[in-house]
Amino acid sequence: MSSTSSIVSVKEKIRYDINVHREQNKQILLNSRRGVIVYEEDIDNVFTIEDMKNLALEIKHRRKVTIKHLKVLKHALLNGQEFILSFYQIQGAVDSLLHFMSSKNEGVQLAAIECICNMALGDKKTCIKLTKIITPYLMIYINSWNFNLSCMSIWTLGNLCDSNEESCKLLQNQNFFCTLIESLKNSTCDEVILNTFYALKLFLKTYIYQLEIEELNKLLLVCFERLNFWKESFWIVYQISCRHDCDLLNANLIKQLFFSIQDEDIIDIKCLVAILRTIGNIVAKDNSSYSANEIIIGLKNSGPFIRNILIKNRQINLNDECAWVLGNVFNVLQITELHNNNYITAEDFNEICNYLFV
């Protein structure tokens, strides 16, 4: 074999290894966002209910329990509600998990929290009991210097938020919402920030109408700072806009959102959905004409950018969102015909429609 062909073979092998490594890392990241961390040495997670009960007894008695045992439990808990209940019903098993969460070995701590994270996908009754037991532990880990512990703790509490309002109330009694805001504001770890958005989304979905408006305003201000870097910010702003008593949901926010649309590096079709729904909510609750006028101006200035996004994503139909925004604008301005109003000409209306309906 010539030296040239040898060099080519080596380069091809390097490229192959790099691609394999990238795919493995992508899968690890995907699984971590689902609350599951996969390791190369993980073994088959196909379990029977009897297997689960036996494993729960081993963990309960803490007899030679290793990280591998906890990994097996983590995967087994994903097999469904019946498996979660089987583990939970072994008296003392959850207490042993709490013991492992307090281990001096951070690997054991993380493996135990991963198990709790998957248990938090259980039914309402299980999640309420779990929330009462584990919240004080995980609240401490949210601000851990170990980003893995912090990420998984936030993810676990987010899963509990999605289960029921009572769990959210228990979490809020521990100052959960303000802690998440501080995490979002101050964290320098991308995974911590991403998981914080996840927990906030589920907490707001279940508990937004029980929160003080001052707390929501604080979250809005943090999200405003993140708009140019984190797409998830737009969806949090949209969720808050569903409450019509927030002072920061005004024409100034409409200006900021339209300005954001022109940032092609961050805005995609999902962001656009959130922006349109937020704008529609704001103008619907604003009895003045100020917000409605800002929307007309914004649609004319940012219309070409909106059109480009819609053209690139023809498989996603946003006609309802666009029509709803325009309908709310016309309703607030009391426009009943295009040729006899002080706000928009027929030419401007046609121009805007050409941007929105492609």
Structural class: mainly alpha
Distance between the termini: 58 Å
Using the CA coordinates, give the radius of gyration.
25 Å
Shape: elongated
| β-sheet strand percentage | under 5%
Q: What's the number of domains?
A: 3
Quaternary structure annotation: single chain
How large is the count of helical segments? 18
The string of secondary-structure elements, in order, is HHHHHHHHHHHHHHHHHH
Unreliable residue runs: 26-30, 33-45
Whole-number average pLDDT? 84
Main sheet properties:
none
**How many strands appear in the DSSP assignment?**
0
Task: Name the helicity range.
Answer: over 70%
What does this structure look like?
The protein has helices at residues 3-33, 49-61, 67-76, 81-88, 93-101, 106-119, 124-141, 147-161, 165-172, 176-186, 190-207, 213-226, 232-241, 251-261, 269-285, 290-312, 319-333, 346-356. The longest helix is centred in the N-terminal third of the chain and has 31 residues, at 3-33. By secondary structure, it is mainly α. The chain has 3 domains: 35-122; 129-211, Leucine-rich Repeat Variant, CATH 1.25.10.10; 231-357.
